[in-house]
Amino acid sequence: MLPETTKLNAFPVFMRVEDALVVIVGNGGEALAKARLLSQSSAALKIVADDPDAPLAAWIAAHGAKHVAEAYAPHHLEGAVLVFAASGDAALDKRISSDARAKNIPVNAVDRPELCDFFTPAIVNRAPVCVAVGTEGAGPVLSQLIRAKIDRMLAPSLGGLAVLAASFRDAAERLLPKGSARRRFWNDFFEGAPARALEIGHLAEAHEAAAELLARRTAAQGHIALVGAGPGAEDLLTLRAQRLLMQADVIVHDALVPEAVVAMGRRDAERLPVGKRKGCHSKSQAEINELLVSLGREGKRVVRLKSGDPLVFGRAGEEMQALRDADISYEVVPGVTAAFAAAADFELPLTLRGVASSMVFTTGHDLKGGTLPDWGKLAISGATVAVYMGRSVAAEVASRLIEAGLSPDTAVAVVENASLGDRRLFHGTIADLPALEGRDELTGPVMTLIGDAVAGANFGKSEPLAAHDRLVAAKQGADA
Ligand code: SAH
Question: Of the four listed, 86, 90, 176, 188, which is most buried by Cβ atoms within 10 Å?
Fold first, then answer.
């Protein structure tokens, strides 16, 4: 025998309610909450409320629910398949509950488990797919937490996918032998091209992809998702990125993507680090391109995880070109780029009315030539400049911009490890920027933001850039 705690005292069932009468009795927020829950179904709602409060009255009007503006009487329950006692009045709820039971109608009384024949679950609704969470009264907070987790895992398009699946069921049964072939078809259907097409709202394409899967009945097609992992914090990953990570056979990731983010992938996914930290290239770009192509040819579902946004200094262009040339399907999932994370850490407006109306993403490496690149002129005309990979060229960037006419007083904000717990913030002017190069203790990635809009940042948590310079100078002075 199982220990008592592993047995459910409330067993979940899905009850047919299409056009069936469901009665809710109550005037206030509890009745409204049940009305909202039930309105996710196609049941016919009847709300018995002699004196509905304003929100309930407004909801009834907006949703066209049947409203009985009378004091509760037992005959109101006639013909109902479910009854909700939500009056907020213990004695009345008790009467409603016993009237319902006398008529053999299952009843739920809000917050009074002893009067309930059933409990309402927290639900994740992807009609016709539904996940219901119950805790037998251990607590609505727990149900809601679980609900929210599941909600994040399931694509909004899942309901549509289930409807599409139903339309393919007969054909799949006719054409595919029972067993592994059929299972593989459904696996590819729910996780492969049809699912992906629906996720971006392309129903016709999804239909086509499903038909193709059915016709081909060959090995699964490979697919590469170029996914932005965001600046480092796990919870800055997009829901789509998380879902793809959960489905991946292989995760190919850069060194800048923290372990905690890679670990969000499917547990048995293969993980291939491809390095690329400054100064230690573990794989060349050409080798990475080849790797992606060959994984695609093997039919793998691959997540190519890149820090920040994959299309910003991520060499995604080359990878996409290689995949296109090899005719391997791929998609791109945007991520939070480092400049945005750094701006958020600094509470810094990247555009500011009347001050900065454009923005430049640059590496600064192109400032080394003889002429100022166009973005340099933009900076001088007030654009906010985000410098990626710029620590080692900080002095160069500063002197070239000042030389070209940018005021040495222009504000600068620097963030190491943006979005992460160990981030460090520095501020100063462009004249202080060369000090950055001397800061060998900054071992994490560094984002530099330059421009007049930077002056609008919150400097409460940052250290002055120049302080370091002065300290070093003072120390050298003392040593001399
Ligand atoms: N695709 C990435 C950029 C890759 S280039 C993106 O969109 O963010 C790598 C550079 O990004 C680093 O040298 C640094 O300048 C910046 N960077 C990446 N993550 C960062 C972080 N957490 N904090 C500060 N800068 C970061």
Answer: 86
Q: For the domain 339-476, what is the CATH superfamily, name and number?
A: Tetrapyrrole methylase, C-terminal domain (3.30.950.10)
Q: Which of 256, 280, 285 to mutate to test the pocket of ligand 1 (most atoms within 8 A of CB)?
A: 256
Q: What is the pLDDT of residues 91-134, one digit of tens each?
A: 999 999 999 999 999 999 999 999 999 999 999 999 999 999 99
Strands 411-416 and 446-450: antiparallel
Q: Which CATH class is domain 221-336?
A: alpha beta
Pocket of ligand 1 (CB under 6 A): 231-232, 256, 306-309, 312-314, 337-338, 341-342, 388-389, 415, 417-419, 445-447
- CATH fold of the domain at 21-120: Rossmann fold (3.40.50)
Mutate to test the pocket of ligand 1, among 253, 389, 443 (most ligand atoms within 8 A of CB): 389
77-93 average pLDDT score: 97
Peptide bond into 55 cis (omega under 30): no
pTM over 0.90: no
**Catalytic site residue 254?**
yes
